[in-house]
Amino acid sequence: MTELITNEAIYEKFILPRVLQTRNYLWIGTADIKDMHVRTGRVYEPFLKILAGLVENGVEVRLLHAKEPGPRFRRDFDRFPALLETERFERLLCPRVHFKCMIVDGRQAFIGSANLTGAGMGARNPDTRNFEAGIVTDEKALIDPMMELFDRVFMGEKCLSCRMRDVCPDPIQ
To answer: What local confidence, expressed as pLDDT, does residue 109 receive?
Structure first.
């Protein structure tokens, strides 16, 4: 199954039903990253709290982003020691990352235009969110190459030959 989803459907059809149910690992690639909140029951909670809960339940999370997160993200990040005190959460910065994806357990993926922000993922007010599009898929022919690209970047395969190394705040290798 592969389906095009847009705007708030990213949040409603992927973030809530799939990401929150991750069992083994979650890979997130994004250019921009901000303090997104998600609905859990009747309240909205920081997405970082959700990630911390996943990590505490044994899920491995990789977060790859292109620029430093905003102040609210950093403030919230410090509130969740599970993200700091475990090897199950890895966060890397690469200024060349521009792809956006979320891969759940290697079986489901969102690949599209949306950054990991409330406006990007459709988790904000309809009058303030971005116009975004992407696909949700369970097709290995799409997921496997995305995972391969993500992993090559995450492991620093391109780092030594990168021509942006002099502006990179934290070279992987």
So the answer is: 98
